[in-house]
Amino acid sequence: MYLTREEERIFNGECGWANEICMKILTRLGDLYGAKKLIPISSAHVSGVSYKTLGDAPVEFLRALADAGAKVKVKTTLNPQSLDAEHLTKRLPKTLAQKQLRILEQFKRMGTKESLTCTPYYLERPKRGSQLAWAESSAVVYANSVLGAWTNREGGPSALAAAIMGKTADHGMHRDENRQPNLIVNVETRLQNETEFGALGIHLGKMLGDSIPIIRSLGKTSPDRLKQLSAALATTGMTNMFYCGIGSETKGIEKISVEAKDLKRTIKELSTGSCEKCDLVFIGCPHCSLAEMKQIAQMVKGKKIKRGTEFWVCTSSHIKETARDCVKEIERSGGQVLAGVCTVVSWTEKLGIETIMTNSAKTAYYAPTLSKAETVLCPMKDCLRTAFQG
Ligand code: F3S
After folding, report:
1. Model confidence over 54-63: pLDDT tens digits?
2. 153: containing domain
3. Domain final residue, candidates 253, 269, 285
4. Most exposed: 26, 56, 163, 367, by fewest CB within 10 Å?
5. Does the CB atom of residue 285 touch ligand 1 within 6 A?
6. Prediction pTM value
7. Are 38 and 174 in contact (CB under 8 A)?
């Protein structure tokens, strides 16, 4: 890789250990993927924030970086953590909260925003064509496909290294030639709700490898439905981008079809539990948008949650703050709005939660292994019907 004189100085350790190690992470990856140079980025998004998934060892690395004076050079947001101060901290062992806090402290020392969300684009929408180094796979697919920004699927360490350098290696999704569609997906059924968009993503993710599809006949889309599709595609596959509807030149491109029965089967496979046993109804994977908060508030208005069922809505503190009236409505109904938390990387199993009902295909995919829970996957309106009517 070509390095400027300044980059070379950093690489050679003339600007301190923390900068050297970050530069080495970026150049090693760049060499591996055939990048010729580093390019500036406008923002970074770092994953690996939850203590549940991170564990103890990486915290020492974060501390060492912070001790050595590492500071982010661009706006840097963080993925969700494992618990929130308002609801879960009180219900979980104190040591877990302390260890989680220790991780957040290290990031704070390096200058990251305490955003704690997998939807950083609601805090600030990246400009079309801007180069990013984002590490949350659902946000990566959404950024490339819906927002028109350019980012590879970074890992936690490479996103942090990019944040500290303000640069990333110029390869993959940062290059126009790698963003061209190479497969057409004809959806042969009319998608009815956000859960079917998620199921489509889970189904396609398994078939696509790292192809970039044009997905045709998606029917009525909305940013929230495309968010479910993005999250699910990234769950089972390496696709970092899709196009909706018609592409420009599609002659000679391979075509595949998805039928109603594929989606039905996917939803069935992701539903391992039964509605009657469900003890947690969960909406907010990826974190809820303002529109979703409004929709939930409207649907629960005047209702009361069923005894023995918890209702969680996860979002960022930014959206929670913006949607204060909706939060009140949800809380009046007996639900809880958790800010900055990912249910899948929290300790629901320690709270005695055995069956999770959700509208998110990504949660339904991960919950059996990460949360040791049975799952019921269905659209938000059915989730709420179960939570509020029994
Ligand atoms: Fe976000 Fe957690 Fe889902 S990080 S995308 S809420 S699995």
Report:
1. 999 899 999 9
2. 5-175
3. 269
4. 56
5. yes
6. 0.97
7. no
